[in-house]
Amino acid sequence: MTTSAGKSQIFRAGLIQMRSGRDPASNLDAAMKLIGEARTAGADYVQTPEMTNIMELSREKLFEAIAPEESDICLAAFRDLARKLSLHIHVGSLAIKVSPDKAANRAFLIDPKGEIVARYDKIHMFDVDLANGESYRESRNYRAGELAIVADLPWARFGLSICYDLRFPSLYRALAEAGASMLTIPAAFTRQTGEAHWHVLMRARAIENGCYVLAAAQGGTHENGRDTFGHSLVVDPWGRVIAEGRTEPGVIMAEIDPAAVTAARARVPSLQHGRRFEIVEPMAEPTRLHVVKDVS
Length: 296
Fold this sequence. Notes:
6-stranded mixed β-sheet; alpha+beta; about 300 residues; Nitrilase/N-carbamoyl-D-aminoacid amidohydrolase; single chain; globular
């Protein structure tokens, strides 16, 4: 297993909680203001939520408003801001046009020189019908990613993910086994599912992998009518919530000590104890077993 041994410097993380609307320029202004506030408060690393640049349910209006990566005004502005503030900016995600009829839900990790050091396209698409009548078909507009991504920052190795990925624990185990000690989960969780599952799932991902979880969120009722849960969270490797927002836009600050990861993993070394196995089911003849899945 790859590790990020030797990186133990404490750093300050700022999570930007937003209520993005339909206009990318207005959302950019709001995000940049809050990023500036986080830097003034001492942040070394700042994370924005999923869909920082736009929250739009209409397919036609979405594709009218977004652009390819090379001409996206938000990405260019965030790169300039990272240089100006000498700051690591993690754009939780932008809607990026990748073809005439598909976008990517793409995260960007930008270093203090304004260079993009990592990109991540959301792997798991949110295609659901909720009990209150809400319906989402993310795969209609977005192309699913296929690569899990880790990136080294000065303090630790970061594992990138986005929102609905949270419900797929094998992704986070793979990131932890690849050396990640910081799991990033920027999100736009619906209020209904957030009230039921947000805290328990975030804490579970931290506990089972002995990692910090950093999750900037969208919160409140958006211009397009969608209701998101907010409650941006920082969870430590023992599963304790050490910083939390509410539903209003703002900055959530936390001090992150990478040494806490080493301590938690020493107390419960489950990453060292994982074993590969086969799943079998009995056939008609009770003495025979049939392999139905190999997870090695």
